[in-house]
Amino acid sequence: MTYELIIVEKRTGKAWDAAPQVRSVNYTTNRTGSPGTLKFTIIASGGISFVEGDTVRFSVDGQPVFLGWVFTKNRDRHAVINVVCYDQLRYLKASASYCFTGRTAGEIIQEIAGDFQLQTGELDDTGYAIPSLIMEEKTCLDIISTALQKTLLATGTLYTFFDNSGALTLKEAGGMIAEGVVGTGSLLTDYQYKTDIDAQTYNSVKLSRPNEETGRADVFQAMDSANIGRWGLLQLYQKVDTKLNDAQVEAQVRAMLKFHNRRFRTLKVQALGLLGLRAGQMLFMDVPGLGDIDLRQLVLLERVSHTFENDLHTMEFEVQELGDK
């Protein structure tokens, strides 16, 4: 493997290829809620000089992996420096207040990116204009995540928001199918498999919509009596926007019950590395005899962590979309 880790010192414009001094590199992406993170350990030598805010580009065998900026340096007495870098999504952790009416998720991303002087790339048109989205003093990442969650509930389509080497990107997850297969006899080295009805499972969903005319709330409910008998009553209660009509709230409560009314299966995998794999993609897995199921399907990657050390590339990833069929 050929590594290239270019650090550009903004103050002087000088670029350093730090790969010869780097001991190890770890690159992690999460499907929601956090920026892509590059961590590396470097031995300070050869006149390399960089500070927080300098640009970092990492590629493997000529393929771009990461573009971001230095945020943390931690140096010990032996001149070994642990460095943490983030991509553009880090700047969306800024707090803000927004009020959107009749805007798609892509349009919301475009406006926020413009306000924070961030670069955008391909933003899929979700085809769904969110009736109303009002959020005060929330991080921009939370605002965008809420827009995507509302889009999912209304359309049933999942979208992935990420930084693609310096361009904020929104793509339908179903179209982001990774090349390769991970499973028994194919890259897989170990796994941990968990089933639960604890964290995300609800067999009753109630949505409350304030009613200014009556002074009381209109309540919409969907439940599964059979699963209540199996697991006990597991209820989710939330308020919804007053601008939603009855049909929209009823569709939302049904969609939420469909998603939450199941036993969740979580899979953590250790494997040999598959270059280009990132959270938010779909990956085909083939693991017969995985606990109570034979896993032969596309799965949604929630978290992916790559480690590059010498000529060895390994990865760990988490899958949480293995609900009951």
For the record, what is the CATH homologous superfamily label of the largest domain? Baseplate protein-like domain - beta roll fold
CATH class of the largest domain reads Mainly Beta
> In percent terms, what proportion of residues is strand?
over 45%
Give the radius of gyration: 22 Å
CATH architectural group of the largest domain? Roll
Low-confidence stretches: none
Could you walk me through the main structural features you see in this protein, from its secondary elements to its overall organization?
The protein starts with a strand and ends in a 6-residue tail after the last strand. It folds into four domains: 3-86, Roll (Phage tail proteins - horseshoe like beta roll fold); 91-173, Phage tail protein beta-alpha-beta fold; 176-197 and 263-319, Elongation Factor Tu (Ef-tu), domain 3; 204-260. It is an alpha+beta fold and 325 residues long. It contains four helices and 21 strands.
Can you give keywords for this protein?
Elongation Factor Tu (Ef-tu), domain 3; 50% strand; 13-stranded mixed β-sheet; single chain; 325 residues; 4 helices; Phage tail protein beta-alpha-beta fold; alpha+beta; 15% helix; Phage tail proteins - horseshoe like beta roll fold
Task: Please outline what is shown here.
Helices cover 15% and strands 50% of the residues. It has helices at residues 105-115, 140-155, 225-231, 246-260, and strands spanning 3-8, 15-17, 22-30, 37-43, 55-60, 63-75, 80-86, 95-103, 120-123, 130-139, 159-163, 168-172, 177-183, 188-196, 204-210, 217-223, 235-239, 264-272, 282-290, 293-309, 312-319.
